[in-house]
Specification:
Blueprint lengths: L1 H16 L2 E4 L4 E6 L2 E6 L2 E4 L6 E6 L5 E6 L13 E3 L5 E12 L3 H10 L3 H17 L4 H24 L6 E12 L5 H74 L3 H19 L10 E2 L2 E2 L12
Antiparallel strand pairs: 1-4, 2-3, 2-5, 6-8, 7-8, 8-9, 10-11
């Protein structure tokens, strides 16, 4: 009888100890008492009611989960592989994306995740597939192959929150990325050839643009140089003209003052300048003095032709 009492007492102690729970640092916990949520526990040591009364659901909130959605290599032989989407110009492309998501750590987020955790991955996959089909149907194949690796993740991050919100999954999408994007294997060689041709075209276009930009910069530099030179010459001529005008004005005022005292001063100046002019012309052989032509009968400038030979 005593053994039974000791066994019963030990059982009660062990049962009470089931109410002591250690929550790890990467976890949070929801406490349900007879099915009703009564508490949310942070990491640490907690004491609740024993097993059978309280139920502790541990949720690893620090773990980032990843889903790979779309095309996979082992589907290549299927007639219509998963992740093969139709573009706006009626071309098929294979795509696979990776979605990273974590659990919302708020009390409401934890409760929603606990309720929907069996459906979370499937609903995210459906939302991603719907968003991808919408984006592909609005873009041509060339645009998809050229910009898809950057544009698709951006599109998914803008669309998934609104698509998932009505389901109240209690998760947050952290990141989207493109794991694979290529045409089907049957036409991949043709697409690669087109891509090489387009790459060559873009290379030539970029080279032509660089050359045009270089020539434009040289022309602009030359135009600026000529403009600066013309402005400098014009400014110099303007200053010289102003200096000459000022000098002429000063001389004119001086001549006017001198004329008041000597009415013949301008005549003397004129003859002085004419003398300088005539001396200059004589030195260049433009004129000659006729003093040696003066005779008793006045100025004799008669000239005779030399006799022709043979007469």
């Amino acid at each position: 009888m005593k053994t039974i009492r000791w066994a019963l007492a030990l059982f009660v102690v062990l049962w009470v100890l089931t109410g002591v729970t250690q929550i790890r640092t990467e976890e949070k916990a929801i406490v349900r008492r007879f099915g009703e949520v009564v508490a949310y526990w942070e990491p640490g040591l907690h004491v609740g009611l024993p097993w059978g009364i309280d139920r502790i659901d541990r949720i690893p909130t620090k773990v980032v989960r990843q889903l790979r959605i779309g095309y996979a290599a082992d589907q290549a032989d299927l007639a219509m592989p998963i992740g093969q989407l139709l573009t706006a110009d009626q071309n098929l492309l294979n795509v696979q994306v990776a979605i990273d998501y974590s659990i919302d750590e708020t009390p409401q987020g934890l409760t929603d995740y606990l309720t929907q955790r069996e459906s979370v991955d499937g609903l995210i996959i459906r939302a991603v597939e719907s968003s991808l089909a919408e984006w592909f149907s609005a873009h041509r194949v060339d645009d998809v192959l050229l910009t898809g690796n950057v544009a698709i993740p951006r599109w998914l991050m803008s669309q998934l929150p609104s698509h998932l919100e009505p389901f109240r999954l209690g998760v947050q999408v952290q990141q989207a990325s493109v794991s694979y994007l290529a045409p089907p294997d049957a036409v991949k060689s043709a697409f690669d050839e087109v891509n090489r041709a387009q790459t060559n075209i873009r290379t030539l276009e970029n080279k032509a643009k660089q050359e045009a930009d270089q020539r434009l910069r040289i022309a602009q530099a030359e135009a600026n140089r000529q403009t600066q030179t013309a402005e400098a010459n014009a400014d110099e001529k303007r200053r010289l003209a102003m200096a000459e005008a000022i000098a002429f004005t000063l001389r004119l005022e001086q001549y006017r003052r001198l004329k008041q005292d000597n009415p013949d001063v301008l005549t003397g100046i004129w003859w002085d300048e004419m003398g300088k002019l005539l001396v200059g012309m004589k030195s260049r052989g433009r004129i000659d003095l006729l003093d040696e032509k003066l005779g008793a009968d006045g100025l004799d400038i008669t000239q005779f032709l030399p006799p022709s030979k043979g007469k």
